[in-house]
């Protein structure tokens, strides 16, 4: 049987060496000699032997060409396999779910037992292989026959579940790559707890690939529920308070306590109430953490049947950036409103200083994380120049445009030209925001912006390179962002007082001022976490190299990143430490929340999954077509590789033999 | 290849003689060069070695009267010299196809044989020995009866010049026909590569010896026939039969050399058996060996 029989036409090429050898014999140079009477008797034998050498070369060339043509034709050797009752050899893929949920309540022990039984059940010409499946598919044992089942059971016994998540869709689609031999069908034995959260987004992704039959081995149990710590962070308005979110089954909270640790030191502990309603957010006083980065974690004690999700790890960074507020008068309405808004925040907590426009030029701006200017028209040229230097050096400024700005031809710092030189009157109807760049961190709630009424605003033309974050209905920019060398500015084309708009009486006012200032100051204190199994880009390349240690203190192998340097794929929850460039940073890693959900696939879902037939072999390799034609009890073994290997060996020998004969020819002609 | 002992002997080297235009010039250069090497005059005429005085008698040639003796004694005496007896030389030259063989850079065996024959004829006629020529392959190709008359050298040289390699060799038949032409005793110089059965050679030469001829067998071979130098297998073609044979260098180095050496030894033995003198002439060697053989023979037959 051949995969590509048309390549057999290449055997016609055998005529070439035959013709060449005939041609070579005809044109061979002869040497005249006086008499052959002393050569005749015994030389005939030697001459015949020499002729054989030419025949050897010819045979080598013929064989080489024949092997190449046959190899390209893809021959399949039909191997009769011992009868196994089914007639067709089977590759049993034992896929063992090693996701985090398999740690729960004896799931793993049952899984090992089932997998061992499957390995021992391999008979006849069937083969079995072992795959560990979580966020990645790892082939632990290549296909082996029944006699080598011990290799499988040994690998099963040594395997442990991890912390990452399994997606059934990824597992099923990945099974197409496991190499079944020709004439061999594949049965995927998925030994799992049938966790509902492991299902892919599309049910169709569960369809087995061509040639693969699915066998679900359920090792899960309807055991008591699970309680997990879903998150921990500092309260938005109170940096001395930690908020812990709990999710899961309230019954699992009975008799358990929640422990809060900051930088490895216990700061608070509380026994959970018996009437706990989930999900819940528990608040703990952890005291003033001070500026800097802190490792904040919450842990449930004692551990339950799934202890991997009983703790949550976070990193919080606390800073108190200094903000300079420049207004026409330190006690003006706008200055008062802005100061009150900035000081209302606890996270981040701003250290606000107010300066009159006249004295702004005398302040050392470099010590401020951000500058807020109420009505850019208050700035004189010296102050504007000083602010420009500040921004170019990496500073950040929030400019609002008010009545005074109307007198200017262009916005200070920004250079944005004013459209008419007059404030645009709203007419009978106030202007409203029509377009909001929702992806910007300052504008997280676009709906609220559309409720603000703008009676007047300063019409500006967006300069080149500026991003318009908000526009009015008539297209006039309301909020601009400009990158100026290493710094940036935000320009709001309306003042923050009640004369031109009603922003100051909306809750959005405080939120906008705080978000914008925090954005400009880069001072948002957020709890940063990563998930087990998710690749993280590290900045070790920029640091000039370094090392990463996992929560257990062992060095972690980094993956080569495509662009930004080495990548870290955390495999356990906790704090990973990144050392390099003269400093040490932490990365908080938590388990995937979906693994904590122990809800299992219902019977209907299982039935529908098993009812999914293997995808039709529309574009599969031709060998599968050959498999389909294979007779029961036989296996088709592709032998092209061995033919090609033999051809390579002959290709190495042929020049040696040919060179010998050519050498003879040259010697004869000389 | 043995180098000539003196510059004069270098004239005897075949590659030098091959540059000369005519066989006469070749013969003269070879013979005179040979004698210069021996510090003797080639013009020894009747033999210049004095033997005795004889009282003049009527009929004696008055040119040989020793007038000095007559002045001292008033008697006429005639000087007598050694070698006054003429020797008839018949040159039998093999012109078969195998004699046309020449290895690269060398002259052919036939041309070398022509040089030898011409030199022998020249040397013999210098002593007034009658010289004849018979050329043969499978049959007689050319025949010149022995003669010492003036012009016979020119005729022989012309006959030699016209010879070309012919067909296969039939030594027995050719020498049988030679016997019919050589009724008087003399010296027969057979020049051939002797690619024949030694027994056949015996059968061809023995009748000549029985008739009282002195026989000198000059076997001419190319160096490549004695010591083939092919380093790799080679396809050889017999110039007489056209038969082809692919031969390995191992065989040429070992068995072939053993066989041709044995053949030479048998030829030499056969020649000795019939009282003939055998000499192996290799085409890359000077001609002096052939000339020396002739002189030795003359000395023995004196």
Characterization of this structure:
The complex is a heterodimer of chains A (670) and B (302). With 670 residues, chain A is α/β, with parallel strands linked by helices. Chain A is built from 15 helices and 31 strands. The longest helix of chain A is centred in the first third of the chain and has 34 residues. Chain A is extended. In chain B, the strands form three sheets. Chain B has a six-stranded mixed β-sheet with strand order 5-4-3-6-7-10, sandwiched between helices. A two-stranded antiparallel ribbon of chain B has the order 1-2. A two-stranded antiparallel sheet of chain B has the order 8-9. In chain B, strand 8 and strand 9 form a beta hairpin. The radius of gyration of chain B is 22 Å and the shape is elongated. The N terminus of chain B is likely disordered. The interface between A and B is medium-sized, with 24 and 33 residues.
Give a concise summary.
Chain A is of the alpha/beta class and 670 residues long. Chain A is built from 15 helices and 31 strands.
Rg of chain B: 22 Å
Alpha-beta classification of chain A: alpha/beta
Annotation field: number of helices of chain B: 11
Order of strands, main sheet of chain A, comes to 16-15-17-18-24-23-22-20
What percent of residues of chain A are in strands? 25-35%
Q: Kindly report the oligomeric state of this protein.
A: heterodimer
Rough outline of chain B: elongated
**CA-based gyration radius of chain A:** 39 Å
Number of strands of chain B: 10
Query: Biggest interface: chains and residue counts?
Result: A-B, 24 and 33 residues
What is the share of helical residues of chain B? 25-40%
């Amino acid at each position: 049987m051949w995969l590509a029989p048309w390549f057999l036409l290449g055997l016609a090429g055998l005529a070439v060496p035959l013709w060449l050898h005939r041609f070579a014999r005809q044109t061979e140079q002869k040497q005249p000699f006086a008499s052959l009477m002393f050569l005749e008797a015994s030389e005939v034998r030697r001459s015949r032997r020499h002729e054989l050498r030419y025949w050897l070369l010819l045979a080598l060339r013929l064989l080489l060409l024949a092997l190449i043509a046959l190899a390209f034709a893809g021959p399949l050797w039909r191997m009769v396999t011992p009868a196994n009752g089914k007639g067709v050899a089977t590759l049993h893929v034992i896929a063992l779910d090693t996701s985090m949920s398999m740690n729960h309540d004896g799931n793993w022990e049952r899984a090992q037992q089932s997998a061992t039984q499957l390995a021992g059940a391999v008979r006849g010409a069937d083969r079995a292989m072992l795959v560990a499946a979580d966020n990645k598919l790892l082939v632990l044992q290549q296909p082996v026959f029944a006699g080598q089942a011990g290799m499988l059971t040994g690998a099963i016994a040594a395997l442990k579940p991890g912390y990452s998540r399994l997606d059934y869709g990824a597992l099923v689609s990945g099974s197409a790559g496991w190499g079944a031999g020709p004439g061999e069908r594949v049965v995927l034995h998925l030994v799992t707890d049938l966790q509902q959260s492991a299902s892919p987004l599309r049910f169709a992704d569960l369809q087995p690939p061509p040639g693969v039959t699915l066998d679900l081995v359920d090792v899960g149990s309807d055991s008591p529920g699970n309680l997990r710590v879903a998150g921990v962070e500092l309260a938005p308005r109170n940096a001395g308070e930690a908020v812990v979110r709990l999710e899961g089954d309230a019954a699992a909270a009975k008799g358990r306590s929640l422990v809060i640790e900051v930088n490895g030191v216990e700061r608070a502990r509380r026994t959970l109430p018996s009437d706990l309603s989930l999900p819940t957010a528990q608040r703990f006083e952890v005291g003033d953490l001070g500026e800097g980065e802190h490792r904040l974690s919450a842990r449930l004690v004692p551990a339950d049947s799934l202890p991997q999700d009983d703790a949550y790890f976070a990193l919080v960074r606390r800073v108190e950036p200094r903000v300079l507020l420049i207004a026409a008068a330190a006690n003006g309405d706008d200055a008062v409103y802005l100061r009150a808004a900035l000081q209302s925040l606890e996270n981040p907590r701003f250290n606000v200083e107010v300066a009159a426009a006249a004295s702004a030029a005398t302040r050392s701006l470099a010590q401020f994380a951000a500058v807020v200017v109420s009505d850019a028209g208050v700035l004189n040229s010296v102050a504007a120049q000083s602010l420009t230097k500040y921004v170019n050096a990496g500073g950040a400024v929030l400019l609002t445009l008010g009545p005074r700005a109307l007198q200017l031809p262009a916005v200070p710092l920004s250079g944005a030209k004013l459209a008419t030189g007059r404030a645009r009157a709203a007419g009978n109807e106030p202007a409203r925001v029509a377009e909001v760049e929702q992806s910007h961190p300052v504008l997280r709630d676009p709906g609220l912006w559309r409720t603000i009424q703008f009676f007047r605003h300063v019409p500006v033309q967006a300069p080149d390179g500026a991003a318009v974050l908000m526009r009015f209905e008539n297209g006039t920019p309301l909020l601009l962002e400009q990158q100026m060398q290493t710094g940036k500015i935000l320009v709001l084309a309306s003042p923050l007082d009640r004369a031109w708009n009603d922003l100051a009486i909306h809750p959005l006012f405080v939120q906008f001022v705080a978000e914008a200032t925090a954005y400009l100051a880069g001072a948002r204190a957020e709890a940063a976490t990563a998930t087990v199994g998710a690749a993280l880009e590290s900045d070790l390349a920029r640091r000039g190299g370094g090392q990463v240690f996992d929560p257990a203190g062992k060095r972690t192998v980094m993956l080569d990143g495509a662009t930004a340097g080495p990548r870290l794929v955390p495999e356990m929850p906790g704090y990973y430490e990144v050392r390099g460039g003269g400093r040490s940073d932490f990365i908080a890693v938590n388990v995937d929340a979906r693994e904590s959900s122990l809800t299992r696939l219902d019977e209907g879902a299982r039935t529908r999954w098993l009812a999914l037939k293997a995808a039709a072999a529309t574009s599969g390799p031709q060998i599968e077509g050959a498999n389909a034609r294979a007779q029961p009890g036989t296996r088709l073994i592709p032998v092209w590789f061995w033919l090609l290997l033999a051809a390579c060996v002959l290709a190495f020998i042929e020049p040696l033999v040919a060179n010998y004969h050519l050498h003879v020819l040259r010697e004869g002609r000389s | 290849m043995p180098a000539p002992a003196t510059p004069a002997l270098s004239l005897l080297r075949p590659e030098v003689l091959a540059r000369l235009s005519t066989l006469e010039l070749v013969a003269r250069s070879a013979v005179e060069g040979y004698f210069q090497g021996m510090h003797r005059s080639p013009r020894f005429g009747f033999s210049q070695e004095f033997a005795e005085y004889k009282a003049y008698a009527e009929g004696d040639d008055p040119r040989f009267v020793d007038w000095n003796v007559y002045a001292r004694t008033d008697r006429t005496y005639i000087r007598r010299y050694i070698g006054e007896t003429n020797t008839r030389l018949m040159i039998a030259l093999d012109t078969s196809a195998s004699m046309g063989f020449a290895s690269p850079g060398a002259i052919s065996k036939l041309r070398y044989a022509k040089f030898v024959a011409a030199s022998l004829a020249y040397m013999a006629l210098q002593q007034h020995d009658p010289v004849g020529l018979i050329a043969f392959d499978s049959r007689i190709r050319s025949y010149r009866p022995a003669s010492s008359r003036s012009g016979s050298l020119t005729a022989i040289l012309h006959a030699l010049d016209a010879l070309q390699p012919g067909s296969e060799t039939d030594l027995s038949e050719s020498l049988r026909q030679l016997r019919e032409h050589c009724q008087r005793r003399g010296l027969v110089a057979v020049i051939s590569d002797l690619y024949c059965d030694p027994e056949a050679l015996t059968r061809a030469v023995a009748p000549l010896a029985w008739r009282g001829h002195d026989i000198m067998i000059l076997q001419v071979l190319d160096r490549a026939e004695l010591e083939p130098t092919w380093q790799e297998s080679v396809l050889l073609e017999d110039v007489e039969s056209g038969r082809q044979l692919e031969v390995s260098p191992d065989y040429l180095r070992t068995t072939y050399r053993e066989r041709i050496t044995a053949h030479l030894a048998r030829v030499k033995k056969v020649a000795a058996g019939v009282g003939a003198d055998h000499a192996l002439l290799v085409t890359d060697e000077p001609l002096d060996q052939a000339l020396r053989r002739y002189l030795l023979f003359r000395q023995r037959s004196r």
